[in-house]
Amino acid sequence: MIHIEQVSKTFASRGGAVLAVDRVDLDVEPGGFVAIVGPSGCGKTTLLRMMAGLETLSDGRILVDGDAVVGPSPKLGVVFQRPVLLEWRTILQNLLLPIELRRRPNDADRENAKRLLAMVGLTDFADRYPRELSGGMQQRASICRALIADPEVILLDEPFGALDALTREHLHLEFNELWRSTGKTVVMITHDIPEAVFLAERVVVMGPRPGRIIETFDVPFGPERDERVQADPRFGQLVLRIRESLEAKETTR
Ligand SMILES: Nc1ncnc2c1ncn2[C@@H]1O[C@H](COP(=O)(O)OP(=O)(O)OP(=O)(O)O)[C@@H](O)[C@H]1O
């Protein structure tokens, strides 16, 4: 579904050119879930923004479902670290925004939005404004908005990073179910290694700048996950191996 081939990104800055992403190759199969972890500033966000068509490539190519990414596309839904909801629109109106940018929303769109809100337990909040919702609820609404145009791929940049631990755990379970029930292809950036192992099928480790993929780990659990996965010794072992992979590279900087 996603094919990333020898992708590089160089930014021009006052101090000279900054190589943020260096010849990254990555393939994600349809319905797959890949998490990307790496030290701060290693180019994760830049890579995700290039996948989303929000940043140009300096070199290489990115294909989504066979087509080169040349700009934002309805095939891609993006969720950012902070829920970027418009304060003056209700939750339902916020959800319908991606549709409105292309055409007038109809009753079927409104039904679809309500179905998504029901999936994440926000049925009663459709007509409320973002400020009336907690951070976790707003982030759920943002995930619904990324899904409204029925994209084949969802890209998430630390979507749960700004939430408290309990809310984050709830959303992990919800997001796992959402992924399984919709069959979407997911790429998620996170700093949280246990989160990556809990949610993804594959965890990709990026090394410090210039950002390159240094190691890939397969997660030994099926798609259906719950709290018991974390008690499995393989969970802790994998978290440790990924942490060691990250730390090995940090010390050889
Ligand atoms: N628009 C830009 N102009 C110049 N340099 C940039 C730009 N965007 C990112 N960079 C540089 O590219 C590098 C990678 O940044 P990026 O935000 O992708 O890292 P990251 O891995 O997502 O970091 P973090 O985990 O801290 O969010 C950094 O050195 C950053 O300073």
Automatic annotation (TrEMBL):
Gene3D superfamilies: P-loop containing nucleotide triphosphate hydrolases (3.40.50.300). This is ABC transporter ATP-binding protein. It comes from Leucobacter rhizosphaerae. It holds the Pfam family ABC_tran. Residues 2-233 form the ABC transporter domain. InterPro entries: AAA+_ATPase, ABC_transporter-like_ATP-bd, ABC_transporter-like_CS, ABC_transporter_ATP-bind, P-loop_NTPase. One of its GO terms (molecular function) is ATP binding. The lineage of its organism: Bacteria, Bacillati, Actinomycetota, Actinomycetes, Micrococcales. The keyword ATP-binding applies. The keyword Nucleotide-binding applies. Keywords: ATP-binding, Nucleotide-binding, Transport. It comes from the Bacteria. PANTHER family: ALIPHATIC SULFONATES IMPORT ATP-BINDING PROTEIN SSUB, TAURINE IMPORT ATP-BINDING PROTEIN-RELATED.
